[in-house]
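Forgive a beginner's question, but would it be possible to get a protein, spelled out as residues, together with the matching structure tokens, please?
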Amino acid sequence: MSAQQALLTILDEKIKTDRLLLPTLPEIALRVRQYADDPEVTLAQMAEIIAQDPALAARLMKLANSAFLGRAIKCNTLQQAVTRIGLSQIKHVATALALEQLFVSKYKLVQQQLDKLWADNVQVATIAVTCLKLHQQHNRACTLSSDVMTLCALVHNIGALAVIAEAERHPEVFGHPVFLHNLVEKVSPYISVKILQAWDFGAEFQSAAKNWRLCQGGVPPDYTDFIRLAAISRGYYKSAEAEIKLLQYYLQQQLITVPEFNKQPVFTELYNDIRCLFS
């Protein structure tokens, strides 16, 4: 039996018997989410929790002072940054910024795969949020949240992390990137949902992870549809005909204004502002 077939057999068996090892959220993300759900928590308390992770604190300061939030007055303290972002948003924002901590391996070949996976997720998130922001400029009735959109896009393919973690025990598999890619495509939607359920993420996250690969628009459009726009932009769909049909649907729904939405100057400018938040 080849290494690829052996890995596929192992994955199938672990999925069927619910024995696949699922990643857990970083500790700082768990703490922020726990405190954010406490109606008695104060801005000062939240700032103290976030200060325990200097990398996360630095990223939140950068976000609070970014063009993305469009504020001219600079935040000088973490509490000011938390205040600007808001307690209602900090739960998703902090989780999104802490997720990169999961994409780490001591093995070079595995780390290369994880780096690519994280970079792809960041690209999808940046494009999806850009599309949402531009859509909301012309459709004030859209109540989707950009911070939920960011996190939703970053975890839309989180199941791939578990697949790569399992493949780490079979290093020879990393010499066959096409096989690994096809394996991720096959099983990651199901695993993604399992992970998000374990993390207690809501229905919108689970739905996006399960359905984003389907080349069909939602009614009404939701977070999954903006991930699909990002997937179109990244060339993820294999059927050009289905992709064109989906683009036409999104034009009709006014999620985009032109077919080549990702080549417009207004898109590029906003995209660059958002992309900087992940650097």
Remarks:
- The chain has two domains: 23-102, 103-279.
- The chain is about 65% helix and 0% strand.
- The CA atoms of residues 21 and 162 lie 7 Å apart.
- The two ends are 42 Å apart (CA to CA).
